[in-house]
Design goal:
globular; 4 helices; Nucleoside Triphosphate Pyrophosphohydrolase; 8 strands; alpha+beta; three-stranded antiparallel sheet
């Protein structure tokens, strides 16, 4: 297995409310398995699944809705390594390579974290400047890069 194959293909969404672009607060959700750790919805891309299909599927599975509009996409794959304790449970993967999307909730979208396999216990919208205060240390460099890109492009 080559080094690039050791990174699990994944999609992730930075979600803004249906009040965007007037209000640019970002959705974060509190994980149900780590104390006070918040993140963007994300999930694996199944074999032979298109990236956008995975995005819509993962949002439906994790936050109970896929009623979104894609605003922009980060232009390349971006990756991070799992901390050792997580890597043990994710073998053979040592990390994730992700495609990031900036998405807007549609007016009728209803967030419901009580899904078939709940991953989150709470959610909130925060100012973009607050996101990194709540996230896991190993994801911060990716979050910083993606947020900086969407800011530079004028989306956030």
């Amino acid at each position: 297995m080559s080094k690039k194959d050791l990174y699990r293909p994944n999609v992730a969404a930075i979600i803004v409310s249906n009040e965007y672009p007037e209000k640019k607060d970002i959705f974060i959700a509190q994980r149900n398995d780590l104390t006070d750790i918040w993140q963007f919805p994300q999930g694996g891309i199944d074999k032979d699944e298109e990236v956008l299909s995975a995005l819509f599927r993962e949002l439906k599975e994790e936050i109970g809705t896929d009623k979104i509009k894609v605003i922009a996409e980060y232009p390349e794959w971006i990756s991070y390594d799992f901390p050792e304790q997580i890597a043990k449970t994710m073998k053979p993967y040592i990390g994730q390579k992700q495609r990031y999307f900036l998405v807007k909730l549609k007016k009728k979208a209803k967030i419901n974290l009580d899904t078939k396999h709940p991953e989150f216990i709470s959610h909130k919208f925060v100012d973009v400047s607050e996101v990194l205060e709540h996230t896991a240390h190993f994801k911060k460099p990716v979050y910083e890069s993606v947020i900086a890109y969407f800011k530079q492009e004028g989306y956030l």
